[in-house]
Amino acid sequence: MPDYQAPLRDLRFVMDEMLDFPSHYARLPGGEEASPDVVNAILEEGARFAREALLPLNQSGDREGCLLEGGEVKAPKGFKEAYRQYVEGGWPSLSAEPEFGGQGLPHSLGMVLSEMICATNLAWGMYPGLSHGAADALRHHGSDEQKATYLTKLVEGVWTGTMCLTEPHCGTDLGLIKTRAVPTVDGSYEISGTKIFISAGEHDLAENIVHLVLAKLPDAPEGSKGISLFVVPKFLPDADGNPGERNGVTCGSLEHKMGIHGNATCVMNFDAARGFLVGPPNKGLACMFTMMNVARIGVGIQGLGLMEASFQNSLAYARDRQQMRALSGPKAVDKPADPIIVHPDVRRMLLTQKAFAEGGRMLVMFTAQMVDVVEHGQDAVEREHAEALLGLLTPIVKAFLTEVGFEATNEGVQVFGGHGFIQEWGMEQLVRDARITRLYEGTTGVQALDLLGRKVLMSQGETLKVFTREIHKFCKAEGDNPALTEFVEPLARLNTEWGELTMAVGMKAMNDREEVGAASVDYLMYSGYVTLAYLWARAAKLASQSLGGSEDAFYRAKLDTARFFYQRLLPRTRAHAQMIQAGAGSLMAISANDFGLGFEI
Amino acid sequence: MPDYQAPLRDLRFVMDEMLDFPSHYARLPGGEEASPDVVNAILEEGARFAREALLPLNQSGDREGCLLEGGEVKAPKGFKEAYRQYVEGGWPSLSAEPEFGGQGLPHSLGMVLSEMICATNLAWGMYPGLSHGAADALRHHGSDEQKATYLTKLVEGVWTGTMCLTEPHCGTDLGLIKTRAVPTVDGSYEISGTKIFISAGEHDLAENIVHLVLAKLPDAPEGSKGISLFVVPKFLPDADGNPGERNGVTCGSLEHKMGIHGNATCVMNFDAARGFLVGPPNKGLACMFTMMNVARIGVGIQGLGLMEASFQNSLAYARDRQQMRALSGPKAVDKPADPIIVHPDVRRMLLTQKAFAEGGRMLVMFTAQMVDVVEHGQDAVEREHAEALLGLLTPIVKAFLTEVGFEATNEGVQVFGGHGFIQEWGMEQLVRDARITRLYEGTTGVQALDLLGRKVLMSQGETLKVFTREIHKFCKAEGDNPALTEFVEPLARLNTEWGELTMAVGMKAMNDREEVGAASVDYLMYSGYVTLAYLWARAAKLASQSLGGSEDAFYRAKLDTARFFYQRLLPRTRAHAQMIQAGAGSLMAISANDFGLGFEI
């Protein structure tokens, strides 16, 4: 069975040493609660919960899956009990506002915990995970009464939430939804329609489920401008706020999926279910994006957690498994063969996992600081800056970390050789679970259009400049630091090129909008590598300063990993840069009819 | 349910127009049997068999899996009946020698059929698939009596074969095997030990199973020089050659795997099983490579089949599924949204599948010609040339086609969005089935060492030159063809660079052997892209000559795909070239102890 230790030392490096979270927290209102001692205690407790309560259920949950019987869904054995512990531990309320029963700690802290949960049991993590988005939508757009009724219960964790967006005929294109909301005399609405792919849509972990549902009012405008958001509880709250009458929303069936078997992915039928409008009519898409942005970063963290889990277990295997001799001569002379970690290509795979996981952790925590500032920052200029940067980084966090997360979990399988394909070892489950992260909450292609089209080009490149200026400043400051030349020089070049490539695509796009879509995914991946290069350079700076002390080995390994990232992963930008510049021509030339002439008769 | 049409038009392009198979067959002894009419009839019949008999069992076989009861394995429903049809159709004997009951047709023809089988039902295809390797080992190394007893049955298809190499503690490093062979008075051996990952090790499709087993004689030298090959039948043939007494080889358990659920992957226990030495004692590794090389090309064909299947179905979905409007304005104005094939990024994914599948088909058939020549060629010089080129291309076919096969089947899932993750659509099964192809018969890392270490560097680069000279000749001949400049110029550059990179690694390796392993996988991928670039340039030449005729659309699509390959896939060589040159330093620096300092306490 796979093992897992939360990377507490690495988190300390990123949070305390690199990004100075102690000062960051001290500046947030109420942040004094998040003292280093408190933070450490929470991380250690979270690590224990993930390892002891969730990890043992990951493989059994995958094998068992969920069961739909008489309209009720049973989660795999042990899931309910783990959820009870989670609620009793106070985890759901960690970073929620005190006025709704929360502990008022910074959001970033919840994101660290989330990595540990995703690393040990993604399918389980999706039950409480969806609640965050639902809670956020209510917090920002709900009425006071809705907050009192639903938000407090979500914060407490006794109820969970869902996001009901997708329908059989539309996912990305929500303007096409058919679910209807008909006003009734008491001000509520009757919601009717079918939603699919609803994670945690029905289950036995919590006493009630709060569905956030996109639907159309009778006279709504066409398309995405005519979407409204509704809250539709599974049980309508009674006068005391407890689950009362069963509402007309039921699980029609469960999907059979490639992975995350332990999570109930439901077809939800709304049959004149009673719902309540959240926010203004026809403004549901904006409200939905509130949920969505939180969820997108959450999915990026899933990618991070899965690659850390895969890395730790393939490392253990590579140290243990003996096969062949090192090319340069035997290393373990007393053994019949050397442990496979001596082989350069095995090291390449392990270092790929390590560099992406540790770099991904830096990216997530870098982004998490902005989330804190956007939510609670006291300085308007600072908040605006964080908001711009957060907008830019959100699609990168979501898509880049899930793309490389899928690669890294696959490297984990590859290190195991044939054994990686066998379920018992648990490595292939990480791949199957990781596969969904490239798809849900907007595919990589959708994130890429958001990044290049909405964030970068629609702002005339201004949003990008917010970031490239920061990178430029770093490169200038470290320009004459000989210890960092190997990092700063390529970083400065890439940073300049990033701007140039953006300009070039922008110019082409003025003549042909298809150029945006043609460049988008390569642009996103390119952006991800440069972003990680910036963070790895900062890590290298810190590590090089800390060599020679009592933790010399830790900092040396960090520096070695930075070097590996620059020498063996960053060159991928050479391919992406060329492909961005290649333009739309070779994509659009072939007619849709002619794609299949090799096999169509 | 996924559909599939064998790509007969594309096969005609590759076989008849591009690689002139009619002349190739005419020059082989007995090749006159393989007239264009016969070949066409066989391909059409094979296409029908794959589509009608195998495709309908692919998803059900995946869901059902295999069942071990009382030592007997039951394959999924319908598998046995499909195998009966396969044998009755004469398919197992297609390219076997007439003296053993074969039809004497060229091997390349069997390889085309193999693509169709892998595209429609890989798990099923593994039952007869392993017989080829076993038959080849017997044909080359077996005694006349062994051939008469076993080979004829394998050719007829009434018995199937296995390759029993891997043991729990060793796969790649076969020198470590523990299975023992003790001579008995009658000249046979008692084989005892445990073999794992034995595909089709036990099943109910055929009346007997012929295991080819690696084991050690009592006084065998240490390591790989002390391995011998044995034939161990499930039922010992009686005096009439029919299955007689049950031998001491049994299936101990079935593996639970990520994919190819319909194939029985067995733990095989040999308990003083009666076996017969094949080839000379202690020369088993050489005999094993006979099986292995055939099997390696076979696995490359699996990658090809799976990507073709994925491509066809994602194409159908992309034409049907309506979502969003084209960035440049609505295309299907009468519909609520445009079919997603209008979006450049969806086209990028489809063209990636198409370019790899069609390019992979060229590579397989190019290699197939060499297999024919090596087996049956009449001219010694020609045979030697083919042998060298085949040695070079075998690891590329195996590893490159399975690496890009995994990518392409994943693109198929991505085109489907969230639906790709749902089992019902069949796209995720192709990914799960494809995952094993990067592992078995030698992982990508093992193939890469074979290519760079054994094939290229051990020959002082001579084996590579056999191929680069051919590419150089093509570039020179087409140098002043303006229609091909966009292909020939980059190809010539890459071809030169290929030699330079090889030389550079070779020089470094003289000081440090680890440099070979450090460069190997990037070198293999680089080699794969250049090889496909050469074949795509040849295809482009042909297509550009054929424009304007009655099949203008077909040739135009071929040219468009060549252009896409050059503009959007070939730039990946820029990354691989840099990573090859980066050397071993950043891989070897970090100590095995320090990899885990971020999480180890």
UniProtKB/TrEMBL annotation, chains A, B:
<dbReference type="InterPro" id="IPR037069">
    <property type="entry name" value="AcylCoA_DH/ox_N_sf"/>
</dbReference>
<comment type="similarity">
    <text>Belongs to the acyl-CoA dehydrogenase family.</text>
</comment>
<protein>
    <submittedName>
        <fullName>Acyl-CoA dehydrogenase C-terminal domain-containing protein</fullName>
    </submittedName>
</protein>
<dbReference type="Pfam" id="PF12806">
    <property type="entry name" value="Acyl-CoA_dh_C"/>
</dbReference>
<dbReference type="InterPro" id="IPR046373">
    <property type="entry name" value="Acyl-CoA_Oxase/DH_mid-dom_sf"/>
</dbReference>
<feature type="domain" description="Acyl-CoA dehydrogenase/oxidase C-terminal">
    <location>
        <begin position="282"/>
        <end position="450"/>
    </location>
</feature>
<keyword id="KW-0274">FAD</keyword>
<dbReference type="InterPro" id="IPR036250">
    <property type="entry name" value="AcylCo_DH-like_C"/>
</dbReference>
<dbReference type="Pfam" id="PF02771">
    <property type="entry name" value="Acyl-CoA_dh_N"/>
</dbReference>
<keyword id="KW-0560">Oxidoreductase</keyword>
<dbReference type="InterPro" id="IPR006091">
    <property type="entry name" value="Acyl-CoA_Oxase/DH_mid-dom"/>
</dbReference>
<feature type="domain" description="Acyl-CoA dehydrogenase/oxidase N-terminal">
    <location>
        <begin position="43"/>
        <end position="157"/>
    </location>
</feature>
<dbReference type="Pfam" id="PF00441">
    <property type="entry name" value="Acyl-CoA_dh_1"/>
</dbReference>
<dbReference type="InterPro" id="IPR013786">
    <property type="entry name" value="AcylCoA_DH/ox_N"/>
</dbReference>
<dbReference type="InterPro" id="IPR025878">
    <property type="entry name" value="Acyl-CoA_dh-like_C_dom"/>
</dbReference>
<feature type="domain" description="Acetyl-CoA dehydrogenase-like C-terminal">
    <location>
        <begin position="467"/>
        <end position="590"/>
    </location>
</feature>
<dbReference type="InterPro" id="IPR009075">
    <property type="entry name" value="AcylCo_DH/oxidase_C"/>
</dbReference>
<dbReference type="InterPro" id="IPR009100">
    <property type="entry name" value="AcylCoA_DH/oxidase_NM_dom_sf"/>
</dbReference>
<dbReference type="InterPro" id="IPR052166">
    <property type="entry name" value="Diverse_Acyl-CoA_DH"/>
</dbReference>
<feature type="domain" description="Acyl-CoA oxidase/dehydrogenase middle">
    <location>
        <begin position="163"/>
        <end position="271"/>
    </location>
</feature>
<dbReference type="Pfam" id="PF02770">
    <property type="entry name" value="Acyl-CoA_dh_M"/>
</dbReference>
<keyword id="KW-0285">Flavoprotein</keyword>
